[in-house]
């Protein structure tokens, strides 16, 4: 009998974790059992836990204990048992999976190269997360890029959305775009996207002192400053802030220095999840949370189904190939490997030029 191993975290303390093993349940009509082959772990997954309660991330893969949850991850999985007439054994899926060895899904909305998980508990969740690629039927599928796809596609697709959003708003008249947590992959993706846009403003990366030289080496930012060099920012130039850090101190200092020249702040991430209190200098009225799945849904309605995906996929592929110059993927498998990668990412110990791909 197949056993399912799940990595469980305490919702209010992501450092408290345990492994849970249980027998796979009998499949109902229309259900399949997917074996999660491997998945990526970056700060993005920590954020799913940090904002899990607020944005519903705990609802994808619920567990019985109210206090606990399973973190969603981007990965590949293979169908190893099927009670669905149109989803065969051996089908390989790319998409949103639990940090677990297996997951039961209820495929719905089947198309040649996509399907959704139609499980009732996922009905109200953003469609972007409920949709899976049936990779064997994808004309552009490239098995050599699987790891880059799970590490970088969700992040660079977000970067693409952010640039699209700012372009749509004529960059709010800014002459500089300042990006805190510039070493994060989502920020680097923004830098790739901005470098393709002749009308984009000058790009200033803000990062921790330990990551400064790695960010400079990328040659994607016009200038790179450490967090203790914020006073070197030119406050006389109108600016937008694309924030990955969620760091209240950093944002407060930037907003105070820029004043009326702070045209717009997009709150994208919270890599500095333990420094998230916004102080009195934070300008709320010109700051807005950015939610990539919402932007993708908006574009799907405006551009028609699939159009956004084609553009985002092209961008991701190009940027992912370029990222091979600096990104090291750390592959590892087994329960200890999963636990270890989680601890490293949670503590911010993974070097900026590395990313984890793990599996059970
Ligand atoms: N809104 C959306 O729709 C959306 C979509 C995708 C991603 N995001 C968000 O974008 C952010 C970046 O995600 P990512 O996966 O691209 O990150 P990543 O590549 O794993 O970022 C690593 C960087 O984050 C900072 N960091 C990470 N953990 C830290 C810790 N414990 N303490 C201090 N600094 C830490 C460090 O950057 P520095 O030294 O440069 O600060 C580190 O180099 C996440 O918060 C993610 O959720 C949002």
Short characterization:
With 360 residues, the protein is an alpha/beta fold. Helices cover 30% and strands 29% of the residues. The site of NADP nicotinamide-adenine-dinucleotide phosphate has 28 residues, from α1, α4 and α5.
Overall number of structural domains: 2
CATH architectural arrangement of the largest domain: Alpha-Beta Complex
Helix content: 25-40%
What distance lies between the first and last C-alpha atoms, to the nearest angstrom?
A: 17 Å
- Name the overall outline: globular
Task: Walk me through the structure.
- The chain has 360 residues and is α/β, with parallel strands linked by helices.
- It has 2 domains: 3-141 and 327-359, Medium-chain alcohol dehydrogenases, catalytic domain (Quinone Oxidoreductase, Chain A, domain 1); 154-293, 3-Layer(aba) Sandwich (Rossmann fold), CATH 3.40.50.720.
- Helix content is 30%, strand content 29%.
- It has helices at 43-50, 52-55, 127-130, 146-168, 185-195, 212-218, 248-258, 292-303, 307-323, 335-346, and strands at 3-10, 13-23, 32-41, 68-69, 72-82, 92-98, 102-105, 107-108, 114-117, 131-134, 176-180, 202-207, 223-226, 239-243, 262-267, 287-289, 328-333, 354-359.
- The strands form 3 sheets. Strands 3, 5, 6, 7, 8, 9, 10, 17 and 18 form a 9-stranded mixed beta sheet that branches.
- α4 crosses α5 (185-195), α4 (146-168) crosses α8 (292-303) and α4 packs across α9.
- The radius of gyration is 20 Å and the shape is globular.
- 44% of the residues are buried.
- The model has no long low-confidence stretch (mean pLDDT 96).
- NADP nicotinamide-adenine-dinucleotide phosphate (NAP) binds at residues 42-44, 47, 155, 158, 181-186, 207-208, 211, 244-245, 268-272, 290-292, 347-348, 352.
């Amino acid at each position: 009998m197949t056993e399912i191993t799940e990595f469980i975290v305490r919702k209010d303390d992501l450092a408290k974790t345990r492994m849970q093993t249980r027998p796979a349940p009998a499949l109902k009509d229309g259900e399949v059992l997917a074996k999660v082959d491997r998945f990526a772990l970056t700060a993005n997954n920590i954020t799913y836990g940090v904002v899990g309660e607020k944005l519903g991330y705990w609802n994808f893969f619920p567990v019985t204990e109210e206090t606990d949850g399973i973190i969603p991850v981007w990965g590949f999985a293979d169908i190893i048992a099927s009670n669905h007439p149109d989803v065969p054994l051996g089908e390989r899926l790319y998409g949103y999976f639990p940090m677990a060895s297996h997951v039961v899904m209820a495929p719905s909305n089947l198309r040649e190269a996509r399907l959704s998980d139609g499980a009732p508990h996922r009905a109200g969740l953003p469609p972007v997360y409920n949709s899976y690629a049936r990779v064997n039927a994808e004309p552009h599928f490239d098995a050599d890029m699987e790891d880059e796809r799970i590490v970088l596609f969700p992040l660079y697709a977000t970067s693409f959305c952010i640039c699209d959003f700012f372009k749509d708003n004529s960059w709010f008249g800014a002459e500089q775009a300042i990006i805190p947590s510039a070493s994060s992959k989502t920020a680097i993706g923004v830098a790739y996207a901005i470098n393709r846009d002749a009308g984009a403003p000058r790009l200033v990366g803000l990062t921790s002192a330990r990551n400064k030289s790695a960010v400079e080496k990328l040659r994607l930012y016009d200038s790179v400053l450490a967090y203790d060099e914020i006073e070197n920012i030119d406050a006389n130039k109108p600016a937008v802030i694309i924030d990955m850090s969620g760091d209240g101190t950093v944002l407060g200092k930037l907003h105070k220095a820029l004043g009326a020249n702070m045209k717009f702040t997009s709150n994208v991430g919270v890599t500095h999840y333990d420094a998230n209190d916004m102080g009195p200098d934070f300008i709320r009225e010109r700051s807005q949370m950015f939610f990539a799945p919402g932007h993708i849904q908006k574009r799907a309605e405006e551009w028609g189904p699939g159009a956004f995906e084609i553009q985002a996929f092209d961008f991701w592929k190009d940027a992912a190939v370029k990222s091979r110059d600096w990104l090291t993927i750390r592959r590892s498998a087994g329960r200890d490997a999963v636990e270890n990668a989680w601890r490293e990412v949670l503590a911010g110990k993974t070097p900026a030029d590395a990313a984890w791909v793990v599996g059970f």
